Amino acid sequence: MNAPLPSASPATSTPQPLRLLVAAPRGFCAGVDRAIEIVERSIAKYGAPVYVRHEIVHNRFVVEGLKAKGAIFVEELDEVPDGSPVIFSAHGVPKAIPAAATARGLDWLDATCPLVSKVHRQAERQLEAGRHIIFIGHEGHPEVIGTFGQVPEGTMTLVEEIEDVAKLNFTTEDSLAFLTQTTLSVDDTAHIIAALQARYPQIVAPRAEDICYATSNRQAAVKAIAPDCDLLFVIGAPNSSNSMRLVEVSDRCGTPARLVQRATEIDPSWLDGVKVLGLTAGASAPESLVREVIDFIATFREVSEETLITAEEHMIFKLPRQLAG
Ligand code: 0CG
Ligand code: SF4
Fold it and tell me: Which band of pLDDT confidence, cut at 50, 70 and 90, is reported for residue 12?
C-alpha cells in the first residue's frame, strides 16, 4: 500500500479549486469484510501459510496485504499441498471443489459471501422443483462458474445481455426460473428480466432480488452524484464486476468515469478543466486507497471534499463456525 505517490507536474501557479463529491456507501461490503477476516483468522488459527483459491476478493492490494501476513494465492485446488488449509474466495465455488478438498482430507474454509450462497441454494431449489434455470450473468466470472457448478450440466442457461433472450429456444410451456449474479447493473438486469417475462410469462422469479444490497447501494450513490460531476473516479480493479458496473452507471448518467486502481495511475492532466470530481470505490476496494487518491489530488488541486450519503449499511455476516468465537 505504501508505494511512492507520483509527483504532480510542478506547480507554476496557485492550485485550482476542485470540488470533490465522495459517494457513500462505497468500498468494502459485509461479504468482503467477512472474507478478509476469514483469511486473517485462519492464519492465526492454523499458522502460515494458509492457501486461498482465487483472489479472496478482486483487489490486488488486499491480496498483497494478505500475502504479507502468510496467505498463498492459487487458482486451482491441485496447487494446494496435502495437509495445508485452503480457503475458497468470496465469489463462491462449484460444488465439486469442496468435495475434492474433502476427498483429499484438506481443512477447507468457505469465504463465499452468504448472499452468493443464497443464490446457490435457490438454484438447487429450482432444480428440485423441476425448473430449468435461466441465469443472468457474465460468462467466465468466478461467481457464474460457481453458481453453474451447483447444478448438473445442461440444467442452467446463461443470458448475458438482452439480445440473448430472443435466442432462447424454450417455449411458454416449459417450466422455467431465473436467477442472477449478485454484482450486475441494476438497470440492465431489470431490462433483461422484463424481456424474459415478456417472452416467458410463466418464468418464476427469485423471492427477492439476487443483486446484492452493496451493489445496488453503490450504483444508487453514483447516480446521486454523477449528474453534478465533470468526471468520476471509481477505485477498483478491472476484474471486479461490481466496480466496473459503477463506471458504466456514471457513463450512462453522461459523466465520464475512469477506473483507478490507485493514486500512482492518475495523470494530473485528466483533471484539466474539471471543477467537480466524483469519487467512489467498488466493494472490494479498501478505503485506504480512496484516501491515497484524495491525498494525491490535493498535491496539485485545492480540494474541498463533500460526502453524499444515500444509504446507511449495517450488514454483518457471521463467520464460518470453525472460526467463530
Ligand atoms: O464484483 P465481483 O463479483 O467481481 O467481486 P469483488 O471481489 O470485486 O467484490 C466483492 C466480492 C465478492
Ligand atoms: Fe456479497 Fe455483494 Fe459484497 Fe459480493 S458485493 S461479497 S455479493 S455483499
Answer: low
Specify the CATH number for 114-199; select among 2.30.30.100, 3.30.1070.10, 3.30.565.10, 3.40.1010.20.
3.40.1010.20
CB atoms within 10 A of CB 19: 17
The catalytically annotated residue of 55, 124, 143, 163 is 143
In sequence order, what DSSP letters do the residues of 74-134 get, joined into one string?
ESSGGGSPTT--EEE-TT---THHHHHHHHTT--EEE---HHHHHHHHHHHHHHHTTPEEE
Ligand number with the minimum distance to the CA of 56? 1
18-28+213-309 against 30-110: fold identical = no
Sheet strands side by side (includes 156-159): 156-159, 132-136, 176-180
Q: What is the pLDDT of residues 39-84, one digit of tens each?
A: 999 999 999 999 999 999 999 999 999 999 999 999 999 999 999 9
- Kindly report whether the global pTM for this prediction surpasses the value 0.85: yes
Distance from Cα 117 to the centre of ligand 2, integer Å: 10
